[in-house]
Each structure stands twice: as structure tokens, then as C-alpha cells.
């Protein structure tokens, strides 16, 4: 244990720090420490205080950089359209395999995450991204499509586990009043990986007008994804995490396979309202295929696709910041913020995809598939319009995903339950992605795919409205959060500067 002076210093830092900031101190506070003493000591470097290692900011930061290096590189590669290849057929088939296994594993990933713990679940999940990118390097040399399809199926298993662990950490570690900002900071760091990943092919192909990227691009991505997998080993178990107010994450202390399998069905039974978000889950990756393959790949050469990728993922950073911080504006009640978020999502769905309709009317799949079709370059006349449209697509994606995570986080603070919510989210999301990648592989008309995106997004918002209006409360009482665990209030309650959450009269 730390000395008395160390305890006093940590406690003083915790109570004086801004509790709403995603970088506040999570020092020692009163609850028994479950990890090693060094995990709970903050460090001061000049005017800056580095939070304790087992604090939510540090742990979420580690997860964000794992996703920066693993899914971030995956997004950068797929954002080029066709996995960086001239033709998207192999990439589409690989992604069908990926999202098919992802949809099954993802739906039940909460069980595995709760039983194995977030650290090892995340670590295993990262390995699939390295193998997936290696398969494209192989394909670039021998044109054997079997390896990318196998790697896609394997990545579906790995990604299902990684994203479930990530979602559990992102929604259950922060205090209620800071969830939007924590989600935003994760999304901003994560998408910085895609920005960096897009800069790699941009730099390597900046003087090329070819249709496919070179081997060096894939090798660069492989190095980065391997680094991300290794970084995940530095996480601590969720049971060791302590917030600035002394509270702990609500979990199962003694999970078993039986209890966690049963927990999935208990979640669906006791929190059946979650099904109103299922259509939003389904729509949340549906539009990627259209944006990456039917806009970016279809209309632009490789260096312009890389530039578009940089702009797309950079716009995600802006969207995450705007929505994440707006969702935590404490001058408004959380229930009010939820309704406002729904209204803004609906308005920008109509506005941005309305602009997309005007763009899509200009070309067809048959036209862009012709041998003599010349793809647009950033020096081409008329490039500025679609460039801004693609940036708005990126902004919109961040807004959609941030709101989904925030809505789920507003329903509960229980880490076990949120793992199951995340599993439902990623499983259903991936089922939609598998379907649309297959539709695109069958060469459906671009306008049909566009219309399906717009209709799903608008329709799913309407279906989610009853949950937003009736189930998002201003706070969730602690005694309700612990019902889905084997912990007691005394084991997880705040001890510094905060009162136990109870509904106001």
C-alpha cells in the first residue's frame, strides 16, 4: 500500500481535479485496492499531472491506441476501396466472410469478454488484423483469393472480441457525466490511426495514377497492426480500475461460462427495450460499402482515393469532438440531450444524404466499369464538390457511432451488461455489413445501394425514437446497476467528493 502522504496527495489531486474532464486523476481514494500499489499513484511532471495507471483515462487511452493501430489500419486499407486493389471483387468476398463470422461471434462476444476479461479478449482480437493485411500482401503477389477470404473469416472472430472489449471499457469505465467525452476521445484517437494509415498510401502513391497500391503500403500496415497487438498487453484487468471518486467498475467478481451465457438472455429479457436500437446497429456499417467502393473506388484514382481517405477520417475526428462534447453539456438534462441528439441526427441524415443523391445521379456502375473510363484526380475539374461530400460522410459516420455508444451508455453503467449491449451492437452491425458487401459483389446498381443506405438510416432513427423518449434517464441509480452483478454497493460506490447516485425526488 502507499504511504499516508501518498494517499493524501492522491486524494487531494482527485478532489481538486475537474471530474468532468477525460483526463482527471483517478488516484487512491478509499476503496480497497485490488491491484499493485503503483497502479494507483498519479505522477506530476512540471505543471501536468499524469493520472494513475489503473485510472479510466489511461486505460481508455491504451485501448484507443490499440484501435488506432489495428482497426485504424483496417479502416485506412478498406477506405481505399477494394482493399487497395484495382477491382473490389476479392475484397468484397473477404469482407463477406469477415462480417459473417463477426456477426455470429460479435453477438455472443459479451459472454467471452465477461469470462476472459477485457485485457486478453482485446489482445487476441488484435492478431486478426495483422493476418488480414498480410493476406492482401500475398494477393498482391500471387492473386490467390483464398488467403484473403480465410483471413477475413478469421478477422471476423478476432474483431468481434476486440470491439466487444473496447465498447465495454469505453462505456463502463467513465463516470456518467463524462461518457460523451470519453467516447469522443476514443473515437478521435482511433480515427487518427485511419488518417495516418491513409497518409501511407498517399505518400507512396502520390506520383502514381495506378489503380492498386504497392507492396510497401501493406508492409507498413502490417508493422503498425503488430505494434497494436503488443500494446494491448499493457492493459490492466477491469477489476483493478478505480475512478477519481474512488468508485469501481460494476462487474461479476466470479464469472463462469454458465453465468455469462445466461447473462445474454437475461439482458434481452430484462432490458428488452434495447431491441429498438437494433435497426440503428444494423445500419451503422451498411453505408461503408457504398462510400468506399461505389464512391471512392468507382470514381477516383489511387492517390485521390488516399487523399479522400485522409479527409474522411479527419472529418470523423471533428464529428466525434462536436458530438461527444455536446452530449456531455451538463447545463441540460441528459434526457433532453438524448432527444436533441436524435433530432440533429435526423436533420443531418436528410441533408447529407440528400447531397449524396445529387452526386449519385451523375454516374452508374456500367459507366465506371468501362475499360476506357478515366477516374477523377484531385487536379480534375469538379473535384471540390465530391471532396466535401466525402468529408461530410465521414463527419456523419462519427456522429452516428458516437450517439449509439452514448445511448447505450445512458441505459446502464454495469460493465457486464454493457459488454452484452456491445456484443449485440457489433454482431448486428456486422450482419448488415456482410449483406451489403455481398450485394456489392453481385454488382448491384449504385443507386440501389445508395437508396438502401438512406432508407435504413432514416427508418432506424424512427424506430429508435421510443427508447430515446422513454428509457434515457438523467441518471441510473447505483442499486439498479449492481442488480446484474455479484457485487455490493459498498464495493463499487464512490468515496471521494461524490454522493451515491440516487434518483432525485
Describe this structure in words.
- It is a single chain.
- With 505 residues, the chain is mostly helical.
- Helix content is 67%, strand content 1%.
- The chain has a two-stranded antiparallel ribbon with strand order 1-2.
- Helix 4 (89-116) packs antiparallel against helix 16 (415-441).
- Mean pLDDT is 85; it is low at 1-30 and 498-505.
Shape: globular
Give me the number of helical elements.
Answer: 19
Strand content: under 5%
Which runs of at least 5 residues are low in confidence (pLDDT < 50)?
Answer: 1-30, 498-505
Estimate the helix proportion, in percent: 55-70%
Mean pLDDT over the residues:
85
The ordered string of helix (H) and strand (E) elements is HEEHHHHHHHHHHHHHHHHHH
Distance between the termini: 40 Å
Radius of gyration: 23 Å
How many strands, what sense, and barrel or not for the largest sheet?
Answer: 2 strands, antiparallel
Structural class: mainly alpha
Biggest β-sheet: strands ordered side by side in the sheet: 1-2
**Strand element count:** 2
Amino acid at each position: 500500500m502507499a504511504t499516508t502522504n501518498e494517499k493524501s496527495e492522491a486524494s487531494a489531486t482527485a478532489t481538486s481535479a475537474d471530474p468532468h474532464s477525460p483526463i482527471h486523476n483517478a488516484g487512491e481514494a478509499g476503496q480497497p485496492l485490488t491491484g499493485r500499489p503503483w497502479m494507483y499513484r498519479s505522477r506530476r511532471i512540471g505543471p501536468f499531472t499524469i493520472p494513475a495507471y489503473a485510472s479510466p483515462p489511461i486505460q481508455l487511452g491504451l485501448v484507443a491506441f490499440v484501435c488506432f493501430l489495428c482497426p485504424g489500419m483496417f479502416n485506412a486499407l478498406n477506405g481505399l476501396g477494394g482493399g487497395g486493389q484495382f477491382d473490389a471483387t476479392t475484397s468484397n468476398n473477404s469482407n463477406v466472410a469477415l462480417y459473417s463470422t463477426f456477426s455470429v461471434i460479435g453477438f455472443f462476444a459479451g459472454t467471452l469478454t465477461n469470462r476472459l476479461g477485457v485485457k486478453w479478449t482485446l489482445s487476441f482480437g488484435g492478431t486478426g488484423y495483422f493476418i488480414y493485411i498480410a493476406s492482401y500482401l500475398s494477393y498482391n503477389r500471387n492473386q490467390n483469393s483464398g488467403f484473403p477470404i480465410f483471413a477475413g473469416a478469421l478477422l471476423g472472430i478476432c474483431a468481434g472480441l476486440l470491439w466487444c472489449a473496447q465498447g465495454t471499457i469505453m462505456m463502463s469505465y467513465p463516470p456518467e457525466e463524462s461518457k460523451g467525452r470519453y467516447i469522443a476521445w476514443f473515437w478521435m484517437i482511433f480515427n487518427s490511426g485511419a488518417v495516418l494509415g491513409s497518409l501511407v498510401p498517399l505518400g507512396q502513391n502520390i506520383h502514381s495514377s495506378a489503380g492498386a497500391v504497392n507492396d510497401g503500403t501493406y508492409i507498413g500496415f502490417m508493422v503498425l497492426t503488430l505494434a497494436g497487438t503488443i500494446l494491448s498487453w499493457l492493459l490492466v484487468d477491469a477489476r483493478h480500475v478505480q475512478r477519481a471518486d474512488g468508485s469501481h467498475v460494476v462487474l461479476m467478481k466470479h464469472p463462469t461460462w454458465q453465468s455469462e451465457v445466461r447473462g445474454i438472455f437475461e439482458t434481452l429479457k430484462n432490458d428488452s427495450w434495447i431491441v429498438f436500437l437494433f435497426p440503428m446497429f444494423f445500419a451503422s456499417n451498411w453505408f461503408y460499402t457504398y462510400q468506399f467502393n461505389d464512391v471512392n473506388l468507382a470514381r477516383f484514382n489511387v492517390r485521390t482515393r488516399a487523399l479522400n481517405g485522409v479527409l474522411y477520417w479527419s472529418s470523423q475526428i471533428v464529428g466525434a469532438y462536436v458530438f461527444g462534447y455536446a452530449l456531455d453539456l451538463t447545463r441540460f438534462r441528459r434526457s433532453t440531450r438524448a432527444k436533441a441528439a436524435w433530432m440533429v441526427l435526423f436533420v443531418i441524415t436528410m441533408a447529407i444524404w440528400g447531397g449524396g443523391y445529387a452526386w449519385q445521379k451523375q454516374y452508374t456502375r456500367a459507366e465506371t466499369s468501362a475499360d476506357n473510363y478515366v477516374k477523377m484526380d484531385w487536379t480534375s475539374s469538379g473535384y471540390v464538390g465530391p471532396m466535401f461530400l466525402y468529408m461530410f460522410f465521414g463527419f456523419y459516420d462519427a456522429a452516428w457511432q458516437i450517439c449509439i455508444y452514448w445511448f447505450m451508455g445512458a441505459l446502464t453503467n454495469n460493465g457486464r451488461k454493457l459488454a452484452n449491449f456491445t456484443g449485440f451492437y457489433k454482431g448486428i452491425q456486422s450482419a448488415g455489413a456482410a449483406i451489403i458487401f455481398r450485394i456489392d459483389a453481385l454488382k448491384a446498381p449504385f443507386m440501389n445501394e445508395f437508396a438502401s443506405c438512406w432508407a435504413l438510416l432514416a427508418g432506424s432513427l424512427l424506430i429508435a425514437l421510443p427508447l430515446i423518449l422513454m428509457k434515457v434517464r438523467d441518471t441510473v441509480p447505483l442499486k439498479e446497476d449492481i442488480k446484474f452483478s455479484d457485487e455490493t454497493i459498498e464495493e463499487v460506490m464512490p468515496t471521494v467528493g461524490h454522493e451515491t447516485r440516487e434518483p432525485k425526488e
